[in-house]
């Protein structure tokens, strides 16, 4: 009788609704990921779903280094690409909290000779509404892609280009604006951008495996980036990270990115007012609203509001989705730009809503 009771209690414990729910989520997410990330001998990706600040799903698929045959680990370091913009935006808001600048300031207050600088505000740069020419669309970019550029050299590279539209007239995703923001961070703080991010964000949050990207430095746990050609995989194109700079040159891990998300939720860096500014929707000159805050797209999944951003840089693609109402964070990092985790991460977030949300949602 005693043995029967023990077996019965074990059955109850291992078959609890929470355990069954977690197993169902894991199986469903595995099925989604393996549709795209199914080459065990090629580069792949790492994925996490966190609920209330803790991982409930975390797995790696594929290789971190094809030459050595090393498998990817959830602890590998990936280039973030444009997810860097989150950190640049928060750095600007930190400086505003300290009274060192204001998002309504014009560029000309800090860069006196910037064309039309008295009409372009920091707010315009943060929200991609400045009209400045995006340097990634300039044909001459190939001339500097592998050169070591100072922030001023980068700004000088695009500042005299004809503007695309009047500031505030439309939303048009723009890397130049975030390079300018990095330059402003240096001018206002008196620190190099990479040093400012490390000291005032990475160190404060405990992101000990996050870096300003480098192909020269030895970075423990680095995942190597790849392209896919008709004949197979090749190593990623080498660029100077001084070119994407504050628009796309940071590196991190799943666990560090969760620390980052938790720090935002808990106002570890930004106060409530600054956090609200980061995650608000704003309006164009004509009064129409657009779905971008400061460093995040403000969207929804099945009418549930989300904060999202992805990234793409040679050899890597990334995507993160946060659902504030349910405190669900989903992130995917890929070490081949042949694999985009954008739709996959959104579908994972929809599954997380279905299995973890307080209100059950249909799959996306």
TrEMBL record:
<dbReference type="InterPro" id="IPR001466">
    <property type="entry name" value="Beta-lactam-related"/>
</dbReference>
<dbReference type="InterPro" id="IPR050491">
    <property type="entry name" value="AmpC-like"/>
</dbReference>
<dbReference type="InterPro" id="IPR012338">
    <property type="entry name" value="Beta-lactam/transpept-like"/>
</dbReference>
<dbReference type="Pfam" id="PF00144">
    <property type="entry name" value="Beta-lactamase"/>
</dbReference>
<keyword id="KW-0378">Hydrolase</keyword>
<dbReference type="GO" id="GO:0016787">
    <property type="term" value="F:hydrolase activity"/>
</dbReference>
<protein>
    <submittedName>
        <fullName>Serine hydrolase domain-containing protein</fullName>
        <ecNumber>3.1.1.103</ecNumber>
    </submittedName>
</protein>
<feature type="domain" description="Beta-lactamase-related">
    <location>
        <begin position="40"/>
        <end position="337"/>
    </location>
</feature>
């Amino acid at each position: 009788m005693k043995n029967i009771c023990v077996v019965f209690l074990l059955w109850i414990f291992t078959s609890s609704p929470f355990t069954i729910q977690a197993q169902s989520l894991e199986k469903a997410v595995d099925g989604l990921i393996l549709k795209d990330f199914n080459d065990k001998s090629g580069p792949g990706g790492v994925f996490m779903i966190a609920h209330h600040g803790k991982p409930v799903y975390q797995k790696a698929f594929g290789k971190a280094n094809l030459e050595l045959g090393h498998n990817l680990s959830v602890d590998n370091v990936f280039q973030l690409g444009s997810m860097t913009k989150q950190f640049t935006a928060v750095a600007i808001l930190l400086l505003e909290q300290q009274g060192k600048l204001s998002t309504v300031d014009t560029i000309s207050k800090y860069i006196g000779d910037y064309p039309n600088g008295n009409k372009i505000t920091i707010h315009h740069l943060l929200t991609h509404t400045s009209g400045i020419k995006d340097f990634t669309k300039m044909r001459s970019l190939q001339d500097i892609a592998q050169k070591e550029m100072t922030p001023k050299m980068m700004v000088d590279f695009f500042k005299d280009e004809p503007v695309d539209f009047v500031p505030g007239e439309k939303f048009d995703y723009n890397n130049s604006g975030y390079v300018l923001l990095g330059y402003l961070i240096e001018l206002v703080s008196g620190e190099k951008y990479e040093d400012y991010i490390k000291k005032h964000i990475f160190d404060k949050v405990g992101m000990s495996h996050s870096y300003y990207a480098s192909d020269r430095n030895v970075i423990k746990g680095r995942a190597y980036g790849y392209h896919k050609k008709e004949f197979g995989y090749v190593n990623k194109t080498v660029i100077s990270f001084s070119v994407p700079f504050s628009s796309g040159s940071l590196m991190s891990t799943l666990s560090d990115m969760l620390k980052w998300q938790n720090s935002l939720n808990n106002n570890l860096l930004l106060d409530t007012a600054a956090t609200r500014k980061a995650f608000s929707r704003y309006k164009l000159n004509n009064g129409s609203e657009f779905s971008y805050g400061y460093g995040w797209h403000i969207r929804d999944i099945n009418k549930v509001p989300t904060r999202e951003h992805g990234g793409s840089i040679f050899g890597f693609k990334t995507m993160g989705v946060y659902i504030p109402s349910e405190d669900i964070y989903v992130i995917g990092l890929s070490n081949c730009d042949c694999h985009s985790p954008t739709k996959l991460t959104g579908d994972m977030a929809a599954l997380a809503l279905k299995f973890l949300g307080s209100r059950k949602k249909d799959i996306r």
